[in-house]
Amino acid sequence: MRMTPLGDPVDPFDEQQRPLLRRRADLLGATFEFLADDEPLLAPVDAAYAGVPPQRLGGGPALQVRLRRGETAGWPPGLDRPPAARHLSGAGVFGVALDAVNMTLVMPELGRALVTLSPELLDRPLDARMELVECAVYQLAARAQGLHALHAGAVALDGRAALLIGHSGAGKSTLTLHAMLQGLAGVTEDGAFLDPTTLRVTGVPNFLHLRTDSLDRVDDAATRARLAASPVIRRRSGAEKFELDLRGGWLPLAATPPVLGLLVFLSPTPAPGADPWRPLAPAEVAARLATTQPYAAWRPGWQETVERCAHLPAFELARGRHPRETAADLRRLLGGAGGG
Description:
- Helix 1 (39-49) packs across helix 3 (125-145).
- The protein is 28% helix and 29% strand.
- It folds into 2 domains: 21-145, no CATH class; 149-339, Rossmann fold (3-Layer(aba) Sandwich).
- The chain has helices at residues 39-49, 119-122, 125-145, 172-181, 221-228, 282-292, 294-297, 302-309, 323-339; strands at residues 21-27, 30-36, 62-69, 86-90, 93-97, 103-107, 112-117, 148-151, 153-157, 160-165, 185-188, 191-194, 201-202, 207-211, 232-234, 240-245, 259-266, 277-279, 314-317.
- The longest helix has 21 residues, at 125-145.
């Protein structure tokens, strides 16, 4: 971030600088405006959100993310990963910081976020996107609109959504891909946002992250070739995954946020009997939501939302012999929920 001398009586906080570039996108029910002084600052934004179907919840707010170029962070040469994120909060502001330069600050009541990026992080646009830009978008959209942020994927059929709930590694991304190959619309891979008033589900259907050993479980030759050509990213956990870009019209994506119609809790084990799914009673649904969504549990209005969700159709879905079988089971369940 360019700094003027502390004693400058004209603009000591560098507030008079006006951004030269703008991007707009309808994301997570809101209209986002991204402001920056040069194209490299907008590269992570374009990589993440260009071409994503507009997601409007109706009357969504106008939110703004300001991206600023920071001073050098002084990272040692050959640094494998950026420093681990530290969380910040207080006085109506919260965010994450990688160091003294690279950080995201979110101000929900103002509908604003500030992202500062050092030259070192700008040279790593994937890390800039995943560590800071996505944090600004997700947290600002959720908190400014009162959405529940859920650790869940989602697909849709005829305007009705199925939440796919399971721990990391349960197969949400693989199931989402195979469900889309069977005609269901993708909503989100792993971060679903639920409107507690309308029970509409939204997300950012831009990427699927699939394990590098998933190629042999994709039967469609064109999809397998596209997946093999996708970049491989490495998570902080060390897991390496293909980042499959869903944009461009080659797979169905939800054009508008669908209404929640079904909850599916993914089981890592095969079905013991003939039926791959087991219906869940409202009390069990509520208990499972409490267990699987600890982040949402302390947010305002969550218990009321749980009570509404607990009376929707809900099932535990066992893993099939092949993901396409599980996707077919999911389609039957969602079709039944839509017809009932």
